[in-house]
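Reading a protein record of the kind used here takes only a little practice. The integers have meaning only within a learned vocabulary of local backbone shapes. With that in mind, consider the following protein and its fold in token form:
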Amino acid sequence: MLELFDGIHIVRAADATDALRQLATAGIDPRKPRIAELDTEPGVDDRIALFRRGCAAVFGPSVPLALRLAHARSIVARARAAEPEAIEVGSVRIRRDRREAEIGGAVIRLSETPYRLLTLLASRPGRVVPFHVLASELPRSADESRTGCLRAHLSHLRRRLGPDGPAIQAEAGQGYRLVA
């Protein structure tokens, strides 16, 4: 099972083979750290294979929960410290510390979800961001369709960015891209 916890992809699996399969088939945002939690104690070769697939940590059942949480917090802190203060795409500057975008000198404050979607799109300017990666940034809600919810948030974001801002283009069956 693949979960997103505080910006970390957590792969919970019976063993290393199952975890590697999940990592290969799941749509994982490459910018986010990964942790593998296994039901069986991993061997050295298993750990090496998981590290090569981008895992920052591999835990077996012998690792106490408190140590797992401390390690996860450390990984999150390092990932956040490595992020740039702002992302610039064309005439848009996205401030990470204030959840706002500057377009042609005008400051646009964004709520959490539109900000996260814009930051994700801006981290891959001109390239398609798959639907499932964008959908992972949405708040969890059982009564809304993921497609409809994503479209609504992107529509709101397009309006907020205005005609002078970057365009958010849909690619049928693939995802969305930000074009400056």
Observations:
- The chain has a mean pLDDT of 82.
- The CA atoms of residues 93 and 102 lie 5 Å apart.
